Structure formats: structure tokens, C-alpha cells
Amino acid sequence: MLEILALVFITRKIGALAIQKGLSSGRWKFYTVLTWFLAEFAGLFLGLFIIGMEMPIVAALLGYGLAIISILILRAALNNKPDVALDTFDFDKQDENSQFVS
Length: 102
What we know:
Elements: H1 2-20, H2 25-51, H3 56-79
């Protein structure tokens, strides 16, 4: 249950960051969920392969750790993308000869 709540929180943050970068929020949320589950299962299977069936809790923790690392890598890749330029009016760059029309 806590994993689902953490994943909802993480997907919201990634979606907001994607909007800031001018990218599709839904696509990056999908990437986040897909990355989480693929990395979690890969870590679980890797842990079970290395450790064996004697300590499944350690294998599960390895899966969660790998999932968190994969989300950090996904977030870093999204952070490296350029931000969207906002169309704002800058008073300092206004032409000195322009006058207000009344």
C-alpha cells in the first residue's frame, strides 16, 4: 500500500516537472510507472538469483532499491532537458522611443 502511495506522489512530481519542461505529462507519468515496476521486478529476480530463496525479504529490498535508483535516473534525465521559455513582457527591454497610446 505504501508503495502505491509513493508511486502516486512520484508520478505527480515527474508530471509537474515534465510540464515545466514543455513535455507531455501523461507520457512521463507512464514512463515513471513502467520504469518503477520493471526495475523492481529486475531487482527482485536479481536478488533471488544471487541470494536464493533463503532470504526473500533481502531480495525484495533489492528490488525496491533498484526501483528508487531507476526513478532518480529518470528524474535526472528529465531535469537535463531545457525549460520552456515563457512569453513574458520585460520592462527593461522596452524601446525608449515607444509611448503609451491613450
